[in-house]
């Protein structure tokens, strides 16, 4: 089976992790800060705060903004549930703004229509690895007095308007899950240009404690204060060692994903399969390569046939508000975001990962094109 995504590891990655296991620190040690500084340099952000997952990154960002019960945060429906769940964690209300039908990125016009007196922030999702229109979103948020968060869990290594992801919003959340642009096993990062916000993020990730163990050691003191509600969202030195090793390969990983995507674009250019539209103002990280199947094709049949042929396609995503939690808790249901719902019925994510071979790419193309020959009706 060719999976839709997987980690790409080598001997250097393994040795980096083993070296930590032989060291004095497994967590809260020097590699955490080293990874943060290296990551900040790569994305061009003044501050980077490492956390235990992409979900933790989103939650820390929302918590640092002070989202509280009754506050509304605008999010897109075409995303993993963590984007909206992090708002619920704080007692806030996720409000879903529809996506543009060609890119499946959140629509600035739809966002504006969702703003109320209770709106406090917007979380934009760089779906599949293509950055959102942060110029339009930033102007809107500035005019309305809203915070702008980039959910860049798909888009490390991408750019918009010649600026790297990580510098396009007030706060940017990244994920290092194994299928993401780089991996730490599990892990995440938040970047920001605001020093006070970075301090808040570090406090939130460590139980709300005002001073970490190294600061207390330097002061020869055991005393610490818990100054706010926090969580255990720390990332260990083991994870950070792998992250540092992987970060050095990001450019090569992105280049290979781009090569695979270019071959897919070429192969499907004259077929009835439709890749998502690309913005001329953005470079893409291709965490996912998403296609629309022809109208009328049975997506369930296509999914099963491709898996039977060894092509591990997936579907990203069921619109978040259609999950039972959101139906039951907030009363959401079908018809809320028509573009997202229409797209969901036809999309498939094709395999794309750095260690994918040219032969595997051609096998995927062959099997997808076979579906179009007979309409995948059986």
Task: Tell me the radius of gyration.
Answer: 21 Å
Q: Tell me roughly what share of residues is in helical segments.
A: 25-40%
| SSE topology string | EHHEHEHEHEHEEEEEHHHHEEEHEHHEH
Derived from helix and strand composition plus strand pairing, the structural class reads alpha/beta
Would you mind describing this structure in some detail?
With 378 residues, the protein is of the alpha/beta class. It has 14 helices and 15 strands. It has helices at 11-21, 30-43, 54-64, 82-89, 108-114, 134-144, 195-205, 213-218, 237-247, 250-268, 299-308, 324-330, 338-344, 358-374, and strands at residues 2-3, 47-51, 72-75, 93-96, 119-125, 147-151, 159-160, 163-164, 171-175, 188-192, 274-275, 282-283, 289-292, 311-312, 347-350. The protein has a 7-stranded mixed sheet, with helices on both faces. Strand 5 (119-125), helix 6 (134-144) and strand 6 form a beta-alpha-beta unit. Helix 2 packs parallel to helix 9, helix 3 (54-64) packs across helix 4 and helix 10 (250-268) packs parallel to helix 14 (358-374). The longest helix is centred in the C-terminal third of the chain and has 19 residues, at 250-268. It is globular and about 75 Å long. The mean pLDDT is 96.
